[in-house]
Amino acid sequence: MTTRSYGAQHMVTQLRKVMLRTPDAAFYGADAERWHYTSQPEKAGALAEHAALCDTLRKAGVEVIMHDTALPDHADAIFCFDPVIVTDKGAILLAMGKKLREGEEEAIGKSLVKAGIPILGRLTGSAKAEGGDMLWLDHHTLAIGLGFRTNHEAVRQLKLLLEPIGVTVLAYDLPYFTGPEACLHLLSLISLVDHDLAVVHLPLMPTAFYQELVRRNIRMIEVPAHEFDTMATNVLAIAPKVCLMLDCNPITARMLADAGCEVQTYQGNQISLKAEGGPTCLTRPILRD
């Protein structure tokens, strides 16, 4: 029997291997206005928070691999989730919808190949897609949000790459919300924390996507509006009902605990809140059970 070393076609099964990127000068030296950050990250704090996050994952039994390919002037490259997805047959390099992030795809591809993960395919031409718009509903179903960061051509190409390996792609239109300069991903609105449990922000959720969740009997924990602003919907499942989230959303954390989840938190004042990216954004799952 061959032991798998990659493949993460799920959001909640046991996380075995993950890729992260240490904050570098491009991140903590970022021009906040240019990158749409709330303010410039502080170097010492960013490095300490990121090291603590990696340590938390390692203590949970997750192998942490570093994405260390040079990427000057790419502040958002710390958010490893977005440039790629990792299937059972290899990685698919996406095509960033945020122009400032173009180039992250091939760079993380180099780090993945170095770690032994082959490249199954890549988006080309006019296709634009970011991982934050992609949610595995189960091992064989990928939901994609269509918005300012992901377009129809990307969905068409992803279907061509994924359907031969048994994956169905479902696409849903995202709302305008605060416009093209901000970042509203599908995963801004939902995180699965178990096969049948999710934290959600319903006011912005596509109706057809909500109906698909209901059809699948997925229970939904609605986060308070003020905690949506601090990414309460951005929760990394390390295993079914084992959650990692920012430490500034106590009401959502309590609701998750009441639903039977083990909740771990991390401090992300620099690496998350200032740059508007939570634990799912910072981590690219490489291997899940």
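[next item in queue]
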Amino acid sequence: MSDTSLVKDTIETRVTSDLTRVSDYFALLKPRVMSLVVFTGLVGLAVAPGHIHPVLAFTALLCIAVGAGASGAINMWYDADIDAVMERTKERPIPSGRVSANEALAFGTVLSAASVVLMGLAINYVAAALLALTIGFYVFVYTMWLKRRTPQNIVIGGAAGAFPPMIGWAAVTGDVSAESLVLFAIIFMWTPPHFWALSLWRDIDYAKAGVPMLPVVAGRDVTRRQIVLYSALLFPVAVMPYFLGYAGVVYGVGATLLSGLFLLLSLKVWRSKDEASAKQLFAYSLLYLFLLFAMLLGESLVRTVI
């Protein structure tokens, strides 16, 4: 092999290694979760009364994304032991040995601090405080306290995923209002049936890892009843933006139909008691939340254009 070929192969190997390393660090940020967080944060930003410069809006969303990803990295650091025994998570960067636990912790900590500081300096202190609360709640309350101790981990811990639209709202207005609290409440009420639907067909995985998800601790029948209960409670909360006046008729009708279907699928989970219905509800729950917030965003854009 010529010296030129050797150098070329060495460079290609190094580039491939570096790209793999970047990919592993990106995986620590839980990009799928981050995308939902950024989207709901964008909706909070869009529907809030007032105006924010596009550059500042982008900065606020970037801070939300980085903060969410950072807390995800710290979560993976703390949960590396249980991730290693669960089928769904055993290939994550830390349990698979591609990133060390200390590297993940340092990565998450630095990004957490940077996102909050930038939010405070560039946007406002209310949005920064809410972002810090979100990160702290997910890391300390959900990950370190609730997740391994109580089947209510998802109910209480779900608050962490419900803050982003409030942060987006605060980025524009500098305050917290009843309207932004409703956006918080929609995600908060949506989270338990969404994750419990998943846990109904992943309960063996959770049991093996020692995570006290509701089906593991209380059984599947109790979990199915709780899914129906929270789905019923979600219905009136989901249509509230229309009655509070910051969503239009399209949203009001759409939210009613989508929430009605959510409740029907929940009842199907309760009655059929099979894995297929739980998977169906889980898949629909993702579409449901996206469509709900997409309608809010769409109406806001239409009002801006008109």
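[queue empty]
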